[in-house]
Structure formats: structure tokens, C-alpha cells
Amino acid sequence: MKNIVGIGLLILMLVSTWHFLLNGVDGGLIFYSSLILTLFLVIIGFNIFLENRDPIQTITWLVIFCAFPFIGFIFYFLFGRNFRKDRIFRKKYFLDKQTFVKISGEAGYNERIMEMGEHPQQLITLANRLGNSPVSFTTETRVLRNGEETFSNIIEELKKARHHIHLEYYIVRDDRIGGLLKDILIQKVKEGVKVRFLYDAVGSWKLARSYIDELKNAGAEMVAFGPLHLPLLNNKFNFRNHRKIIVIDGSVGFIGGLNIGDEYLGQDQKFGSWRDTHLIIKGEAVRTLQLIFLQDWYYSTNNSFLSDEYLMTGMPNDHGYGGVQLIGGGPDSEWTIIKSIFFKMITSAEKSVWIASPYFVPDDNILQALKVAALSGLDVRLLVPKNPDKRIVFHASRTYFPELLASGVRIFQYNEGFMHSKIIIVDDQMASIGTTNIDMRSFHLNFEVNAFLYRTESAQQLVNDYMEDIKVSKEVEIDEFSKRNFGLKLLESTCRLLSPLL
Fold first, then answer.
1. What CA–CA distance (Å, rounded) separates 110 from 124?
2. N or C: which terminus of the chain carries fewer CB neighbours within 10 A?
3. 428 torsion bin: left (phi>0), alpha (psi -120 to 50), beta (else)
4. For residues 205 and 170, is the Cβ–Cβ distance under 8 A?
């Protein structure tokens, strides 16, 4: 049954086309099409029931199928096909786990970990057990606040590359910044540098073939993650590689919220100013980022490069950098890794929980954790965009505002363009920065990667940046928010109904 949606859609199209060619549009065409659609909706509904999904998600799908059969069928094709993701990615999960345990080994720095205090110790232990990634205290990090800072640093480090450049991105565009990076990569290939570029097939579906061919013809390796040769029958369409990774010579790495495209520099008229956060990493923890890339590359190409030339890292002396852990999560994981760490961060906070997320559609666990933290007297803040780029998610997120506000959560809407940062800061000392949104897709369907920082200068910089962002944001007041007109509330509630499916 794993390809039932694609097969159903294909049969529906073939039967409808055949009947139309023979008889034109008549009652028979409508009858046969409706019969086939109903049959496959019954099969899909039964399959969803047997998958033992979240009850709310299961009921939502069944309601959608009953109320809007054709729209529900298409929507399920686009967003709902899990097809037992544990089976699809089982091999990748076990290979990744074995590799990370073998290469990374046990978490060291026991004395340093003990010095961090009980709260960081628990988070470090949890992240290591779930993500098989030890903490590093000899890794330098620096926060990059916007596209200009991020791409200028990326370009500077790319030009220094001597052995290899590894890139992994969700969205790659053939525009000004995309073209500039392409030219630099081609030049580095000519200098003898190995260039490997992994891009998501869904996120980069608009990427021109000429862009890919130019890099390949120059000698770079460019590969699609989850290629969609037959999209209608592809059971991996809903699982996307949302990671943004660069590793240069195994010693310098980049992760964060920015893809490759001019809009991330604030140069797109549709979005205007773009507020985002990225992180540059130097030293020991880059090896974990390298492992994440290499395992994704192996999954996509069946080629492995687990050798010292790729896994040896430059290790700066310990100058009190604090702790750094790089954690990858995805549908191949045995646990919802990053969501579990977020949950632990929130529930164990002692003073404050500050969150920035462009797409806020939490599940019940995260929502309840935030409300309980606020009700307990903690300073809980949520920073979201004022203007949407994805309207369904935007309107769905606003339906969570009343209960959060009632529990004491302070919500701020960022006013200066679009806010795309994905940040959690706890007690001004621990922070997460990476690609993971507070939404269902990031928690359950996407491949993501985050850096977790413990008492680093970068964590303090994130605190300072968050406070600056608050200054250019407007706080949502519960009395004013409750005055939204009925039509808007209806739209938001409809989007909320769809949120478990996104």
C-alpha cells in the first residue's frame, strides 16, 4: 500500500481521460471518477487508521476526506504520506548511529561537564544519548546576524579552502549570490579542491539545470537528496532535507537559517528586509557536522569518505569557549531528537525561555511545556514575524496566541521585514541555533541540524541580539488580539485544523 496515493491519482487520471476521449464530459465521467476517488479515500483512511498516528491527526484526515474528498486526496498526496518512515529510513538510521558511535566515541570532558551545573549536564547527556554526539569545549563559534555577515564569511572561508568543500542545502537559487558561490566553487575545483554539493530535490525544484551542469562539467559533484523521478509515485516526497551545512577542510563549518538565494540578503521585493541567524564553527565540533554531511552523502550516492583526511579537525586551544554540541535529527531517527531536546530545555528552565521561530505550529507537548513554564513564573517569550511568507502556517500559528497569552507567555511580532531566525535561549546561558522550526514538519518530517551552546560567548550574543529584535517588534496584547474580525478568526481556525497535516 506504500504507493497507494500515486497509483490512485494515476488511475483516476487515466480513467477520466479515457472516458473523456470516448464520451466527452457527461454523467458517466463524473460517476466513474467519483467512484474511484471514493474507493481510494476509503483505502487511504483505513491505512491512516492502521498507522497509529496521533489521534488528532487521524481524525483531522478523516474529517477532511469526508468534507472535501478531492482536495483532501490532493492534500494527502502533498503532505500526508508517511508510508512507515521507519521502514524507508531504517537502514540510514542504523548506519548513521553505528558510524557516529564509532567515530565520535564517548563524551569526554567529564570534569568540564560537571562544572556546567545540573541543568546543562542533563541537556548534554540527553543530546549525546539521542544524537550520539559528544560535547566539545575546544570549539570556537561566532553568531552571524544577517545575510550580509553570513555570506561574506562564507565567501572568505571558501576562498581559503585547500582540500575539500562540502555543502548541503534545502534551497539553492540561480541568482546573484547563487551565481557568485557557483563561480567560487568552480574556481576551487580548478585549484584541485574536492567540491561535493548536496541539495534537496523538493526545496530546490526551481534550480536551473544549467546551474547543476556547470558545476558538474567543472568537476564538482552535485547530487539531489530525495530525487523525484516519478513524483506521483514517490513515497519520499514528504520527507525533505532542510539542513544548511558547509564544511571546509574539516576545520570550519557553517549552520543556521539561511539558504542560498538573494532573498536571504534582503534583496527580494516580495520579502524585503530579511532577519536571520547563522553560526560559524571552528575546531573539534566541526567533525560532527562533517559526519552528518558524509552520512547524508552516503545515503544519496552510496559513496563513503570516512577517512582521516575528512575527519581530522583543527582543534583550537581551550580558551574558555564553553560547550558546543552539533545534533542532527530527522525521520530516520528512533526518537524525535531535536524536539525532545527542546522539550527538556523548556521544562528544566529556571528563569527564562526565549524563542524565535518563523513558523510556530507546536505539538501538544511543546505547547503545554511553554504554558506551564509561563504559569510557573518564568519569563517566556515568543518572537514571530508580523508578515507571512507561508500563509497557512502563519494563520495557524496565531490560533495558539490566546492560550499562550492567557498563561503569561509574552508574544512579539517582528516589524522590520521577515524574521527567519530559529533560536531558543534558556536562562541566558544555553541556546539552540540551527534549521529547526517549532512546527510539526521540522519535528517529524524534515532532516534538520542544530547547534546547542552551553555558556559560550555566542549564547550571550544571541541574548543580546534577541533583546535588539524585541526593540523593533510589537508586543501582542490579549485584549487587542481578541478583537480580530470573525472572518479572520474563521480563516485561522481552518488553518489550525490543517496544522497537524503540515
1. 11
2. N
3. left
4. no
pLDDT tens readout for residues 290-346: 999 999 999 999 998 888 888 877 666 666 689 999 999 998 877 899 999 999 999
> In sequence order, what DSSP letters do the residues of 8-71 get, joined into one string?
HHHHHHHHHHHHHHHH-SSHHHHHHHHHHHHHHHHHHHHHHHHTT--HHHHHHHHHHHHHSHHH
CA–CA distance, 169 with 148 (Å, rounded to integer): 18
Interatomic CA distance for residues 257 and 461, integer angstroms = 16
Nearest CA among 228, 232, 236 for reference residue 12: 232
SS3 141: strand
What are residue 411's DSSP bridge partners? Answer: 382
Nearest C-alpha neighbor of 434 from the set 128, 119, 144, 148: 144
Q: Which residues contact 428 (CB under 8 A, 6 or more apart)?
A: 351, 352, 459, 460, 463
Residue with cell 514517490: 234
Cα distance between residue 160 and residue 166, in whole Å: 14
How far apart are the C-alpha atoms of 73 and 78, rounded to whole Å?
9
Cell of 279: 553560526
In the chain, % helix, strand, coil (3-state, to 5) comes to 50, 20, 30
Classify 255 as helix, strand or coil. strand
The kind and range of the H/E element at 160 are helix 147-160
Q: What is the average pLDDT across 419-425?
A: 97
Owner of C-alpha cell 507537548 = 365
CB 259 within 8 A of CB 299: no
The residue to which cell 502556517 is assigned: 393
Active-site residues: which are they? Answer: 242, 244, 249, 420, 422, 427
